[in-house]
Please model this.
Amino acid sequence: MFPTSAHPLCVEATLDPRLTRWKWLVKWILAIPHYIVLFFLWIAFLLLSGVAFLSILITARYPRPLFDFNVGVMRWNTRVNYYASAVLGTDKYPPFTLKDVPGYPIRVNVTYPERLSRGLVLVKWLLVVPQLLVITILMSSGWSVYRHLDHYSPLSSGLIGLLSLFAVVILMFTGTYPRGLFDFLMGLLRWTLRVLVYAYLMTDKYPPFRLDMGGSEPVAAAIQPADGG
Model:
């Protein structure tokens, strides 16, 4: 069960209280098998998003099997990033699965939309440009408007990568991951994922221009995960 968020995307994360001081130095190496699989999964994600575009345009519906698969790719990718590159908030090795894993320290869900706007599907890429520009400034120092969608690099760039590095350096010397940095990083990650689900047609709800910081969503109630688990 997931808490209900004001946004269709729900991200719940728990900071591992027993993070080791040095393991972050090798996590990106340990995650290489995941990066190889994710390379192909993201190719499938993009192709299926094209199929979903046509389906929404014709039927106003995102085919449920395609939706569940694409949510699974985002879920898998987020677990790997949380472990190895962005946030670095757990030492628990991510599972090789598209499904929700209730025991894992970060969980992602997107509420399935029963119907989507045929008109919006044609212009979402344009409407999301202001969000992409803000995220570019925050996360990738303005080098590329699409850099935040680079899912294959083992090291995060921009503000998320820099702050994650600060956090683990502090962890290395003090044995404690700074809670304020964790909350801020989760806000950046949550915002980025909201933009992603809008840009890839998974919701008609425009992402808000704000950081909802911390590991928990602002609103709590119960909904089912997208995979029905």
Notes: Residues 141-156, 220-224 have pLDDT under 50 and may be disordered. The longest strand covers residues 9-13.
